Amino acid sequence: MPVPPPPAPPPPPTFALANTEKPTLNKTEQAGRNALLSDISKGKKLKKTVTNDRSAPILDKPKGAGAGGGGGGSGFGGGGGFGRGGGGGGSGSFGGGGPPGLGGLFQAGMPKLRSTANRDNGLAGIERKGRSKQ
Where in the sequence does UniProt note compositional bias of the Pro residues kind (predicted)? Predict the structure, then answer.
């Protein structure tokens, strides 16, 4: 059984129902209205507003001329080879504060990450020990 179609939209309002009378204002209301209109037409400066932007995290130190930047020695360690038998991985320490624009994500500095060069060798040793000889 098919669903019946939705009802038709109501007709648009006609101008016969619209209020076409001029508003009646007393002298003080009219004077205030005219003063506002003249201020607007002159380009009068409006009252300054304070915007409280809460979209970013609140940091301990406000950003200003006195706040010194972190940065510091960008000591990205040496690479070393990938795969088995590859050597070395350096210590990737990143001193100072985090890079700008991260919203305080690395406020205390970049974390020290462990090298992944030895991870493959360690897992391979565990797999060998876990397998039974056949």
Answer: 1-14
